[in-house]
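Q: Hi! First time doing this. I have a protein sequence and I read that you can turn it into a structure. Is that right? Here it is:
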Amino acid sequence: MFARTLPAMSIAVLSLSCLVGTTAHAEGQDPVSDRSSTTQKLEGLPGVPLAARPMVTVYEVTSNVSEVEARAATAMFTTALIKSKQFRVLERSKIANGVAREREMNQTGVTSGTSATKQIKGANVIFEATISEATAAKSSGSGGFSIGGMQLGGGSTKDEVGMDVRVLSVGTGEVLDAINVRKEVASTQSSVSGIGNLLGTLAANSGQDLRGLNPDANFQSARKEGMDRAMRALMEQAIFELAQRTSQWVDE
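A: Yes, that's right. Below is the predicted 3D structure, encoded as structure tokens:
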């Protein structure tokens, strides 16, 4: 009689091994360079000679979204400008902590060279960026079904974030260009439970007796795109489009 329980037991072992396999050996992967589609867009822009690039800077990216910290957003925006290889990017947000200290040491003779006597380059254009909107649960859906006492369910939610970018002329204060971009931030959830109920049903239908061996397992998973990744994509898309319009920026 016990031998007749082997098929059901095999199903149980297989089910459990599949679940365990998704969580076992959770060793971190090696870090990799960002190869997102928006990064590749920036890298694919036609090269501009250094002397022909406009001198630009960004002081601070402001944020009306609690999940996004302004200092981190400013660093992301600056990185995206540099990655495009379309601008000569001048540091401003951290100049007091880095450049100014180094020049002070040079002026007092602590360091060699003549950097303290040189003028810091001035920007022709300032980028102003604001993370201006966030819509939670813009759309959502869920569903599930049951078979033989086992329940399977799942759902998805889509949030949306947006950013406005303006290009200002330092010489005239005029807004030379502007763009707003939006991105969906998707999340999904899934769950499986009651596997033991299904095994018991299958065993009963085939006339088997599990003799009290009723293995059970459940599984839940959730996946959500990180807000920082969404922010980078927003910024890189905005810069990609603005970089192709620099010839239209007339600074009188």
